């Protein structure tokens, strides 16, 4: 009896240990939900990162219409954007990829590297009308892996009331020096300066990039003098109280909430907040992010790509190509990008958007000046660099290392 | 305690009847002979639970081990032809500059949480054992942290501890203390997640220890009171020793729960800033899923280290138990 109870206890301990293992690391063997399994071939699957659009929304209706046009039925699934890359990898592992995949642009080169996506040479997607700076995010090793459905980028929103109270003329903000001077005035007037997101995820890198690139630094050399100057600019704002300490943990959404409280003069945020800006209840303006010594800094492009994953049955590509072409046709791009509050990827549609809504003008300009994160043929090197970059930003802002040391460490780790 | 006793009795009854009918698995001698119909029935009864264990415990663990021993890139993950690299992933993990801090944080986080959860839980259990008016209601209220979904409690904590607009800093300001960067300073972030986790873990300790207290016979206290023992002596000489078995299992379960805590830390600090609140659990996730380019191998390796840690403590528990049983 004694030994059996001991055995039982041993089993219990082993099982609890297993439970830790399973809950801490399980996921690897999750099934990638059924996709292109239908034997009739008349059903095509589409995955997108827009779970906010339910059945009956304009987006889902557009998908169905494109399906009808191509003579097939559409099975659509919306995923959380952070989840989509892993889900796609798992599905590809089980030869179960969707026919059409709409995915965040920095992920495209990773999926292409995994051999999950077809090139435009194979699938005959027409990308000739797309702005080259936007298309670059979907290019890797000289090949193109999809076409953008819409783009967004970052700029500075400003609160006109706060600036007026502080006596700041927005026209005077032209470079980093004048921006910092404006922040000082705002602080003196008892208001808060600027809010952004420096969280320890891809979002943090996304927000830091306009300043990094605006200093003239390159992603291949994180610890250049220019890179250090960009991080020192942020660090200086925190030290002097121009930016709140909470930026270290802010997502872009929480940062926007701070700005929407009406106390902040500036906020770095994206195209997608335009609709919320209208609702904020104060007069706002939009300013491209200035470069270190004037001019506009290149901001990173956000937004999704329409891609066609590799299929076992190559006969499906023709129909998939029709679906993708339908989704990115001029009229449909206009409708989709209006719903998403995005800037269109072709100048034809951009002109149409500006004609309909003049407030989009600064955003269209910003998108034209924007740069893909995986551009410059960084491809799958970008994720590693980005991780080290957001870590360096966090180290410097939280005071655990100087900007110079933090970036030097990041550079040696990213190599 | 009655409850636990009963259920353990029931379990051992199961074990006995199982042992009586089922053939013990390692019996190759007997397997050679033709199994009788009774044996077939026994195997049939054993099959569902075996299948369940293999499918939901053994296979994921095997996959995790396999992941940690191969060099997975996104490409080889999809193609399924990742080369076997032995312990390379473990070496990568050991050499990583994050390893030492993550180990330290995991140990500190687990130890501090366990100690405080246990002490506070025990104090509350003794307190509520006095059966005053409203004690049942108050005890129920203490369960709230346990009932709330973790995402709710962790988000609430991170709002309360916000440097600029959090209620904690507002309260500190009211009593004349300057703001503390709870979640955004490397010297405070670990403390903040520990505080939140203690708050979440106290109810579990309270419930288990309280039920343990119920099983201590009241006449022992009466006798002690007659002998002139004061409250502290009664606690020291009766309550604490008699509670020892319950305490041991509470601490072991608490240890396992605390080692793998992930959600609270991830929601509150993402392991940052600058890895200052990274534990093995968050590091494992960060490696496997927190980046655009997942590193499955090292992520799985860190996860396996956690399993080994839990196993080691389980064995320590067994040893202690055996010593107690022998003495």
Automatic annotation (TrEMBL), chain A:
Signal peptide start and end residues: 1-26
Source species, domain of life: Bacteria
Keyword hit for Signal: yes
Keywords: Signal, Transport
InterPro entries according to UniProt: SBP (IPR006059)
Family membership noted in the UniProt record: Belongs to the bacterial solute-binding protein 1 family.
Protein name per Swiss-Prot or TrEMBL: ABC transporter substrate-binding protein
């Amino acid at each position: 009896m004694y030994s059996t109870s001991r055995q039982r206890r041993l089993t219990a301990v082993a099982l609890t240990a297993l439970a830790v293992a399973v809950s801490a690391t399980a996921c690897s063997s999750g099934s990638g939900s059924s996709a292109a399994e239908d034997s009739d071939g008349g059903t095509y699957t589409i995955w997108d990162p827009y779970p906010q659009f339910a059945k009956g929304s304009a987006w889902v209706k557009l998908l169905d219409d494109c399906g009808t046009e191509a003579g097939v039925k559409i099975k659509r699934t919306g995923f959380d954007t952070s989840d989509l890359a892993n889900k796609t990898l798992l599905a590809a592992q089980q030869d179960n990829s969707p026919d059409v995949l709409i995915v965040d642009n920095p992920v495209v080169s990773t999926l292409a590297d995994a051999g999950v996506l077809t090139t435009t040479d194979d699938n005959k997607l027409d990308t000739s009308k797309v702005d080259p700076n936007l298309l670059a995010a979907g290019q890797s090793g000289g090949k193109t892996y999809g076409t953008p459905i819409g783009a967004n980028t970052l700029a500075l929103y400003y609160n006109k009331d706060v600036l007026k109270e502080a006596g700041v003329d927005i026209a005077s903000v032209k470079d980093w020096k004048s921006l910092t001077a404006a922040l000082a005035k705002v602080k003196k007037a008892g208001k808060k300066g600027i809010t952004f997101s420096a969280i320890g995820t891809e979002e943090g890198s996304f927000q830091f990039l306009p300043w990094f690139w605006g200093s003239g630094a390159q992603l291949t050399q994180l610890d250049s003098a220019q890179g250090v100057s960009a991080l020192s600019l942020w660090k200086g704002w925190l030290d002097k109280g121009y930016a709140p300490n909470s930026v270290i943990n802010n997502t872009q959404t929480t940062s926007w909430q701070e700005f929407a409280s009406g106390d902040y003069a500036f906020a770095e945020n994206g195209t997608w907040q335009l609709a919320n800006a209208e609702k904020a209840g104060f007069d706002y303006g939009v300013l491209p992010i200035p470069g270190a010594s004037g001019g506009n800094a290149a901001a990173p492009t956000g937004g999704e790509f329409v891609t066609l994953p590799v299929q076992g049955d190559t006969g499906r590509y023709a129909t998939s190509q029709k679906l993708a072409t339908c989704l990115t046709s001029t009229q449909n791009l206009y409708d989709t990008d209006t719903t998403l509050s995005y800037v269109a990827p072709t100048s034809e549609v951009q002109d149409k958007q500006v004609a309909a809504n003049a407030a989009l003008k600064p955003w269209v300009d910003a998108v034209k000046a924007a740069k893909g994160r995986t551009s410059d043929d960084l491809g799958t090197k970008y994720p590693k660099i980005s991780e080290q970059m957001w870590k360096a930003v966090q180290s410097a802002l939280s005071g655990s290392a100087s900007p110079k040391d933090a970036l030097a460490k990041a550079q040696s780790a990213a190599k | 305690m009655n409850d636990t006793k009963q259920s353990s009795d029931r379990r051992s009854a199961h074990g006995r009847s199982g042992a009586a009918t089922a053939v013990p698995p390692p019996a190759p001698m007997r397997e050679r002979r033709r199994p009788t119909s009774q044996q077939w029935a026994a195997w049939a009864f054993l099959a569902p639970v075996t299948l369940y264990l293999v499918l939901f415990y053994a296979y994921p663990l095997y996959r995790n081990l396999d992941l940690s021993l191969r060099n997975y890139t996104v490409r080889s993950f999809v193609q399924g032809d990742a080369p076997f690299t032995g312990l390379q992933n473990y070496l990568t993990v050991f050499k990583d500059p994050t390893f030492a801090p993550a180990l330290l944080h995991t140990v500190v986080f687990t130890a501090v949480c366990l100690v405080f959860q246990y002490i506070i839980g025990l104090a509350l259990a003794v307190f509520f054992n006095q059966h005053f008016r409203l004690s049942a209601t108050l005890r129920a209220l203490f369960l709230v942290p346990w009932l709330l979904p973790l995402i709710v409690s962790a988000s609430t904590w991170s709002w309360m501890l916000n440097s600029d607009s959090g209620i904690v800093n507002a309260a500190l300001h009211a009593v004349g203390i300057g703001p503390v960067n709870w979640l955004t300073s490397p010297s405070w972030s670990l403390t903040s997640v520990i505080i939140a986790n203690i708050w979440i873990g106290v109810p579990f300790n309270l419930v288990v220890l309280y039920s343990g207290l119920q099983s201590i016979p009241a006449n022992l206290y009466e006798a002690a009171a007659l002998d002139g023992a004061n409250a502290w002596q009664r606690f020291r000489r009766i309550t604490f020793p008699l509670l020892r078995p319950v305490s041991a299992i509470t601490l072991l379960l608490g240890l396992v729960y605390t080692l793998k805590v992930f959600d609270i830390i991830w929601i509150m600090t993402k392991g940052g800033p600058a890895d200052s609140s990274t534990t093995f659990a968050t590091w494992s996730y960060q490696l496997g899923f927190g980046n655009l380019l997942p590193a499955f191998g090292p992520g799985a390796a860190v996860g396996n280290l956690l399993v080994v840690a839990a196993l080691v403590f389980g064995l320590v528990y067994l040893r202690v138990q055996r010593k107690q049983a022998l003495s």
